[in-house]
């Protein structure tokens, strides 16, 4: 095989690997309606749902006893962040897909089942809410690492 043929094969292989997922053991889910992609563990399932009338629209990413929900709706102020602050959740300013975001994490002393973390940000006039739900406090550390990886992988596709 010549140098050019070898490079062409390598380029095709890299494109296929990228299409299958950005990291080892991940797959890419793309939501064409709202123009984002996200990498999730390869063993997870994607469930799309709609709240009537759309938006908002929700996508649930589930696996390993965890659920990450991505809800997209009209950009408007919500009272929920204030309620989370009042409940003692830890607030942090982060960036998601190049957009400023507010992250709220349940206090580490409260690792019971349910909502563990919620992130809010806006893009192109839409509000995005990404949530981590867990059921087993033994998963707390791993769940937050997986959630951080998912947040880091979000990118805009249009």
Strand content: 35-45%
**What is the CATH architecture annotation?**
3-Layer(aba) Sandwich
Q: Kindly report the average pLDDT value.
A: 82
The largest β sheet comes out as: 7 strands, antiparallel
N-to-C CA distance: 38 Å
Category by helix and strand content: alpha+beta
Continuous helix count: 3
Helical content band: 10-25%
Low-confidence stretches: 1-22
CATH domain topology: Protein Transport Mog1p, Chain A
CATH superfamily: Mog1/PsbP, alpha/beta/alpha sandwich
Radius of gyration (CA) equals 18 Å
CATH class call: Alpha Beta
Shape by Cα distribution:
globular
Strand order of the largest sheet: 3-4-5-9-8-7-6
| DSSP summary, beta strand count | 10
Structure description:
- By secondary structure, the chain is of the alpha+beta class.
- 18% of the residues are buried.
- Helix content is 25%, strand content 44%.
- The strands form 2 sheets. A 7-stranded antiparallel β-sheet has the order 3-4-5-9-8-7-6, with helices on both faces. The protein has a 3-stranded antiparallel β-sheet with strand order 1-2-10.
- The protein has one domain (27-156): Mog1/PsbP, alpha/beta/alpha sandwich (Protein Transport Mog1p, Chain A), CATH 3.40.1000.10.
- It has helices at residues 3-20, 80-86, 140-153, and strands spanning 26-31, 36-41, 45-50, 57-63, 66-74, 90-96, 99-105, 114-123, 126-134, 155-156.
- The termini are far apart.
């Amino acid at each position: 095989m010549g140098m050019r043929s070898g490079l062409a094969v390598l380029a095709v292989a890299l494109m296929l690997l990228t299409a299958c997922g950005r990291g080892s053991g991940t797959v890419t889910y793309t939501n064409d309606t709202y123009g984002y992609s996200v990498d999730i563990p390869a063993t997870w399932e994607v469930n799309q749902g709609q709240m009537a009338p759309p938006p908002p629209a929700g996508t649930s990413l589930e696996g390993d006893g965890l659920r990450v929900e991505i809800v997209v709706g009209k950009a408007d102020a919500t009272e929920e962040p204030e309620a989370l602050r009042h409940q003692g959740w830890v607030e942090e300013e982060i960036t998601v897909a190049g957009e400023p975001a507010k992250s709220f994490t349940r206090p580490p002393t409260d690792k019971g089942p349910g909502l563990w973390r919620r992130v809010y940000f806006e893009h192109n006039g839409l509000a995005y809410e990404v949530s981590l739900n867990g059921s087993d406090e033994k998963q707390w550390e791993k769940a937050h690492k997986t959630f951080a990886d998912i947040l880091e992988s979000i990118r805009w596709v249009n």
